[in-house]
Specification:
The chain is built from 15 helices and 15 strands. By secondary structure, it is α/β, with parallel strands linked by helices. The chain has a 7-stranded parallel sheet, with helices on both faces. A 6-stranded parallel sheet has the order 12-11-10-13-14-15. A two-stranded antiparallel sheet has the order 6-7.
Length: about 375
């Protein structure tokens, strides 16, 4: 099977902070191991030496990635690669890709991967636009482009049952018939970030570290985390380590949303909160996680998946989480909270109760066992066959 993987990269300056690139970098070699012939078309190469690479331009903004597909380039690429399957990691580009397939005379299967949903649903079933894609009122056009992408695909791949439910509900509201298209294919875990908690002795007691390793956008609910951070460190039982995953961002990205810089400064000003950078180094990132005792999930309502949560769990770090989206689906119910007081109680118990911590460290590690790249590659190939 010849697979052409079309990858949008939003963070070319810090690939380690771009989950789409990391997923492709882990998945492409696993697909090759399974016998697929893989070419990645992206601004930066992903995979290994067995994977072909076609360099594409970096979209200046996240909106250009959704609204400015180059059909001429796509036609030439499809004719050159002669794929059996084309994967659109930016599903809004699927209509342009379908057009290119038509012009190129290709009958390749088109699979759209819903890596990022531009909407979420409240507990009452109300559809809400993702604020990160609603600058200048563009949220609804993005939503309509997403629906057009669903309609253009032969397969629609989502990360989780929560994402499947949301995508199905959104499609139905926009009269898009998904039929038998939808498949749940989780993202692969990074095997470099796997550690059996049975072989480690994490630090405990006063000053135990809780790690927050998520991007610091406001739409991730970082403002709520800033408020929670004050409560978490108040007693001195817990200290916090906050990851600055972006470093210095391009002016174009800061111009659209400067909340990561603002949130970083607010967190750095808090007592017992350490803001650290992994400098784009996965070894350093692993070491920073290894020195923590537990993780903290983001307050992001439209969360269909979280690479950072899986990173913590693979390392044997229990993760406490608000009851939101996929987080509530995946994380142990005993570690979910609805109020700041509940979050503080969970954090302090993980910091001081060795038996409770050991139980949840084991459960966290085990929850990622089905996400190895080899297993995910097999599910991927089954989904597009």
């Amino acid at each position: 099977m010849r697979v052409l993987y079309l990858l949008n990269i939003s963070n070319p300056d810090r690939l380690s902070a771009d989950s789409g690139w990391i997923f492709a970098d882990l998945l492409a070699p696993a697909l090759a191991d399974a016998g697929a012939d893989v070419t990645v078309a992206a601004p930066a190469p992903a995979g290994d030496a067995r994977c072909g690479f076609h360099q594409t331009k970096v979209p200046a903004t996240k909106y250009r990635a959704r609204f400015s597909g180059d059909i001429d380039e796509l036609v030439a690429l499809i004719r050159a690669e002669k794929p059996d399957v084309v994967v659109a990691n930016q599903i809004e580009e699927a209509p342009a890709i379908r057009t290119a397939l038509l012009e190129a005379g290709s009958n390749a299967l088109l699979a759209g991967y819903c890596h990022y949903l531009p909407f979420s649903f409240t507990s009452g079933g109300q559809l809400q636009l993702d604020p990160s894609l609603n600058d200048a009122g563009l949220g609804r056009p993005v939503l309509l482009a997403f629906a057009a992408g669903l309609a253009a695909c032969d397969r629609v791949l989502v990360h989780s049952s929560t994402a499947a439910s949301w995508v199905s509900a959104a499609a139905a509201r926009m009269t898009v018939d998904l039929g038998e298209k939808l498949r749940v294919v989780p993202a692969p875990r990074d095997e470099r970030l796997v550690r059996d908690p049975a072989t480690t002795q994490p630090a405990s007691g006063a000053g135990a570290i809780g790690v927050y390793n998520h991007r610091l956008y406001a739409h991730y609910g970082t403002g709520q985390f800033v408020d929670l951070a004050r409560d978490l460190v108040a007693s001195g039982t817990v200290r916090l380590r906050v990851m600055d995953l972006f470093g210095q961002r391009r002016a174009e990205r800061k111009g659209l949303d400067d909340s990561p810089e603002k949130m970083r400064d607010q967190l750095a000003a808090l007592l017992h909160v350490q803001v650290v950078s992994d400098r784009g180094d996965r070894v350093r990132y692993k070491d920073l996680l290894a020195g923590a005792r537990f993780g903290i999930a983001p307050f992001r309502p439209g969360c269909p998946w979280s690479m950072s949560v899986i990173d913590c769990q693979g390392m044997g770090l229990p993760v406490i989480s608000p009851r939101l989206g996929w987080l509530a689906e995946h994380i142990d119910p005993e570690l979910c909270f609805t109020t700041p007081a509940e979050a503080v109680a969970l954090a302090e118990r993980l910091a001081t109760d060795a038996e409770f911590h050991a139980l949840h460290a084991k459960r966290a590690h085990a929850s990622t066992a089905d996400f190895t790249p080899a297993l995910i590659a097999a599910r991927y190939l089954e989904a597009v066959s």
